[in-house]
Fold each of these.
Amino acid sequence: MSTPTKTVKSPARSGRSLVILAVILLGLIVTTFVQGASAVRLGLDLRGGTSVTLQPRASNDSNKITSESIDQAVSIIRQRVNSLGVAESEVTAQGSGTNRQIVISVPGDSGRRVVDLVGQTAELRFRQVLAETAGVASPVDTSTAATPAAGVTDELNNRFAALDCTIAANLEGTGADSPAETIVACSRDGGAKYILGPAEVLGQQVSSAEAGYDPSQGLAWYVSLAFNGEGTKAFGAITTRVTSLQSPLNQVAIVLDGLVVSAPRINEPIPSGNAQITGSFSQVEAQDLANVLKYGALPLAFDRGEVQQVSPTLGADQLNAGLLAGFLGLGLVVIYSLLYYRGLGLVTVGSLAIAGALVYLLFLVLGETIGFTLTLAGIAGAIVAIGVTADSFIVFFERIRDEAREGRSLRSAVESGWLKARHTILVADAVSLIAAVLLYFFAVGGVRGFAFTLGLTTLVDLIVVFLFTKPIVTVLAGVNFFSSGHRLSGLSPKSIGMKITKSSTTLEA
Amino acid sequence: MSKLSGLGGRLYSGETSFNFIGNRRRWYSISAIFILASIGALAIQGLHLGIEFKGGSSYTVNKSGISIEQARASVANVGIPGEIIVQKIGDNKVRIQTGALTSAQSKLVEAALTQTFSVAIESIDTQLVGPSWGKEITKKALYGLFAFLIVIMLFLAMAFEPKMAIAAIVAVVHDVFITVGIYALVGFDVTPATIIGFLTILGYSLYDTVVVFDKVRENTKSVAAVGKYTYSQAANLAVNQTIVRSANTSLIALLPVGSILFVGAGLLGAGTLKDLSLALFIGLAVGTYSSIFIAPPFLASLREKEPAMQALAKRVASRGSNAPAEAGTSQSARPTIQPSVNRGPRNQPKRKGRK
């Protein structure tokens, strides 16, 4: 080892950097142990599950999209999702201000229910039935559709006649019915259509809802409601008024999101403040409806932006493919660096190993602390980052070679090459970081996962280059194998294209 | 490999030199042709958008021995509106794509598929995209793009110089244009994963350009004071000196992307991995081209318009010397070994050392 005395400072500093890196690694390992994190949390596309993205829409002029109404919707939807009892379900708003989407993810198979559960506005209304016929469109005939009650105009009568409840679009449940108006509506199964009077009891007057089962009366599954004081009074009033009227005027329709769930005949006034909704529900439907009503209507209507259901089989396939691509990419980069950079290539391999360990530990820790989940796009981001990380080593190594071509000794080539490469690496990584941060804030869904991993791995790249690659190369520069320009060191005069063999080492002497 | 390194040495010293900057009109013409072709392809064929952008539903059934005909017949019986596209993915998967469906219609399709193929409903992978959703994500992607271009331009203007920022952005816009053009021309599917790929290209292409510009800046720092080379000559040397580095970084970046493409297209057949890596693969190739052939010449064009640089060009020309291309200008101020020129006392031990 020919160690000139003047560069004592540099190896000492290198030692310190390596110690800092070791402390960081150790710290992360201890953190994962304390947290008990043993596996990276996987996204739904890697383990199967359902994700729904909802786009808020103002259903009418009275409810504009505000930041508060979105927050409120998120908390209501969260309650509904939690009522499913699936662990690790998530409801988040992505984006900023009023331009936000609500993303719901539920792992596993039970997630299929969530699609109907979350998007539902669940605006519940009780309206008096003014007319009822079969759900098909009929020719406009004013003689059969006589004006049975006040408030039914000819125009409404025509709309009623034209309404075809066999068209799927009319059974979508928009929640856009205005409570003060007389409306036409389909039944939920499309079998009947109604003209309905103004709403007299509203969903917000419901204080609790519960699913129940009554085999003795043949009711099967039903949802029982309890009204608050105001609701009890209003429900008592409507039932008292209609009970003595002729059919169909003695029916009260229970309207959910603009569709009639059931329209029972009222046989006697109900002053108790309790009601039952029946309508050939399955157990699941009844429970979901009860939950939806219990937590209240959403302040906004939502368009279903995207629904994605991934089976566990596909999830496992995608995970394996992602990992395979990662190892393949890593392997190719390692082989290339070893062939091209020989001994220095080992530094690349070591740096990539450290970077890999850091990223893995950060995935573990962030999974516990901020609920980071690794998605397929995230894996792709990490694989792409292998290239970015390796790029910074190349920039550094080529700079060292440039400096060596200028005739510097290896030791001084490393130092002056580093000073110049550092600027390039910092600027280039800053560009990557800016891209990652902006992508994260502007995008939704998969793109965000990608941006997050890209940003994280870029930071790791900086840590590794500063705290590992540079110090290690400085240390190696003192090793004879490299400083003498051994054939396999990657710094031999031949491999950097110099025609000088000795002067590079004698220059500084 | 060592041949490439040897070339690197010769390029560094200037012994071998490609005239990237001088031939800029040629590169501009080539790019102009590509960009015109891209515009043509976009106007005539347009992009082949996936269901994420136009709205629609996709169902993937995973069972060995199922056929496209079975799937088509099964879904056709449901009586849903619009065109039905059925594709076979790999050996035992069939994907059915339809127009935008309501959730009631979607349930009918799922029911039909579970019955036809007697598979559990949980094993069908579905994706339903509302008709207005595509507009929303397109809008977000565009906002992201513009914000990125502006922020990066400001950042590069601070880190380097304003004209470098402009040249870098021109190169990036050039890359995105040509990549999108290739997509329109070939008719690859554009999905959100493709968009991720496009956006990543921005970062990558800039990375390459940053590496080249860093060297250009170094070489041209004192170009006016030294008066030996014009700005273009100094910049050209910088491009030659970084070309091995650019080739290396691009190749290293292509290796992992290539393996994602291989695994994504070969094993999974379709989906996020394939779409993403295909966009990256094309974009990286275009990005490497632009960081050498477009960004530095464009920068030189901008800088040569400055009075100081024009004066410098006159001064260099009036010397009557064909400015030798060897040695970076920033280094030329101090004595240095010039490997290609065999003179000076330092040369002596070298000859002895040679076999």
Note: Strands of chain B lie at 48-49, 56-62, 85-89, 93-98, 125-129, 189-190.
Amino acid sequence: MRKIVAFVAGLVFGLGLLISDMANPARVLAFLDVAAIAEGTWDPTLAFVMGGAMAVSALAWLIAYRRSAPVFGGSLPGAPKQSIDARLLGGSALFGAGWGLAGICPGPALTAAGLGGAPMLLFIGAMLVGMMIYNRVDRMLTAAPA
Amino acid sequence: MPQDWLNGLIGGGLIGAGAGLYLLGAGRIAGISGIAGSVVDGLLDGLPRRALSAWSESLLFALGLLLAPIPFLALGGEIDIRIAAGAPALIVAGLLVGFGARLGSGCTSGHGVCGGARLSKRSLAAMATFMAVAIAVVFVGRLV
């Protein structure tokens, strides 16, 4: 049952990205281009998408906090970690640089994998290589004596 | 434009619903970089038997994303994917997105839709950082 939930959740999440047009990199870049505010051509759609997504997600968290376990077994995530460290901020800065460069982040990349032709597949390939490099670097960092 | 904003709200609501379903149904965070990264890690490191079911859930969530265009197009949805970046920029961007999101423990979905919605301090700091850097990169891109 958990496997069906995972597949359906991915499907619904992807449909949301398609309906909101966030699977389209040009739309994401039109939001990030704040200089367009002065020109009157700025596209605020991403803010509506993020607002809608966070509102529904917040509701789900409120329900989760009242439950002792997920509906189909396993355990709920614990309280969020508190420490804001260099890995969090450095990683987020690198991620933001790549996001701004192409207008593509992981969810839209996978959702539009079959729609975006060779350029999207090139991005996805590079993203997976970036994750493989992280896997090796993380192992070295963890193995190194503190 | 208002039609776009409405589609944004509806689509956003579905994104939140997908994340909420994964959380309440399976107790898991719908962070796409975490999901894709755990699939990659499982392939590189091998999978002990006890990790196999979590790994297959990640794989199935990713499969749901990949197949989402089929019902969307079947229901008459239209989408035009426009990618302005050239091949070198796409390679650099992909490497930065993949490596950066794993190092920073999340991307727009994990830190934004999931962590930000429960006001996690780490997620809010991550969101502020990647939004600011992405906006700065687009701004500099205008100048060059």
Note: The CA atoms of residues 85 and 91 of chain A lie 10 Å apart.
